[in-house]
Amino acid sequence: MAHPPSQSNSTAANKPKRSNLLHYIAMFIVALIILVGIAVIIIWLVLKPKRLEYSVENAAIHNFNLTDANHLYANFDFTIRSYNPNSRISIYYDTVEVSVRYEDQTLATNAVQPFFQSHKNVTRLHVALTAQSVALYESVPKDLRLERSSGDIELDVWVRARIRFKVGAWKSRHRVLRIFCSPVLVHFSKGKSFERAPCEVEL
Fold first, then answer.
1. Residue 110: closest CA among 148, 73, 78
2. In what residue span(s) does the Late embryogenesis abundant protein LEA-2 subgroup domain sit (predicted)?
3. Which of 63, 81, 136, 201 has the fewest CB atoms inside 10 Å of its own CB, making it the most exposed?
4. 155-164 pLDDT per residue, tens
5. Which residue in 60, 74, 54, 61 sits closest to 163, CA to CA?
6. Residue 45, burial from CB neighbour count under 10 angstroms (0-12, 13-18, 19+)
7. CA distance linking residue 84 with residue 166, whole number of Å
């Protein structure tokens, strides 16, 4: 009388099948990673992405008033130059926020209208910010008064934007773009010309 196959023999027979399946899955994953890597390299070689360039081209202060209670009132005007040097990549600026700071204290913040920047394009953003009864702390009031009396003030301009890249019909997911411009030397006297301030870009 024939005996049915034991459970141990059945388990042993299934092991090679499982091993082969895992082997094929591993090979597929490795091949997929290689193909994705090759695609990324090809796209990079075709597009040759270049770093975005920003600078502050002009800046002015109006109605500056620092009260005895160390509250600041002032209007700031900045012209920020944005240059996209890429020949195939365009950019959607979906949200843009600009702030002006002095010694790590934010003096004013304002939003800029969303815009689209095509390739090889220069866009100038004219930004107006208002400091309305901003309470200053620590050494900021004293230092501001000293710089005001000298006729010049060094400010920092920060830009934070949510952007998307566009290549043909393809659009990327949102990325956060941070721009830091410092020092931005602003003259209280209109007789002095403004010197362009380059910006650092983090993406």
1. 78
2. 79-174
3. 63
4. 999 999 999 9
5. 54
6. exposed
7. 12
CB proximity list for 185: less than 8 A, separation 6 or greater: 152, 153, 154, 194, 195, 197
Identify the CA nearest to 182 among candidates 82, 125, 100, 85: 100
Residue 142 to residue 6: CA distance in whole angstroms? 90
- Name the strand (E) or helix (H) holding 116: strand 115-117
Residues constituting the chain: 203
The residues facing 153 across adjacent strands are 186
**Which residue type, as a one-letter code, is found at position 17?**
K
Go through 170-184 and write b for each residue having 16 or more CB atoms within 10 A of its CB, e for each that does not. Answer: eeeeeeebebebbeb
Helices in the chain by DSSP H: which ranges?
Answer: 7-47, 140-150
Name residues whose C-beta falls within 8 Å of residue 192's C-beta, 6 or more positions apart in sequence. 151, 152
Measured between alpha carbons, how far apart are the two ends of the chain, in Å?
Answer: 76
| pTM attached to this predicted model | 0.77
108-146 pLDDT, tens digit per residue, is 999 999 999 999 999 999 999 999 999 999 899 999 999
Burial string for 5-26 (b: 16+ CB within 10 Å, else e) reads eeeeeeeeeeeeeeeeeeeeee
